[in-house]
Design brief:
By secondary structure, this protein is mainly α. It contains 2 helices and no strands. Helix 1 packs across helix 2.
């Protein structure tokens, strides 16, 4: 049972780390060029969904590499 808790905490910490790094790195893009003016909520929602999707993909990649290499 301890190994399941250990694995859970590793997965959550990797996912939070990837989300923070993705949210931070998306700040470098200029989204104002691609969005219509006056659609603030939709722009923020799109920004959040893009950050979530990139963070999910990158964290799943890291987790699968960790499990494949048996660390």
């Amino acid at each position: 049972m301890d190994s399941l808790n250990y694995l859970f905490y590793i997965k959550v910490s990797i996912q939070l780390f990837c989300f923070c790094m993705t949210f931070y790195s998306l700040d470098a893009l200029n989204f104002e060029k691609f969005l219509k003016s006056g659609r603030v909520f939709k722009a923020q929602l799109l920004y959040f969904l893009i950050a979530c999707s990139i963070a999910y993909l990158s964290s799943q990649f890291i987790i699968s590499m960790i499990l494949r290499l048996n660390f």
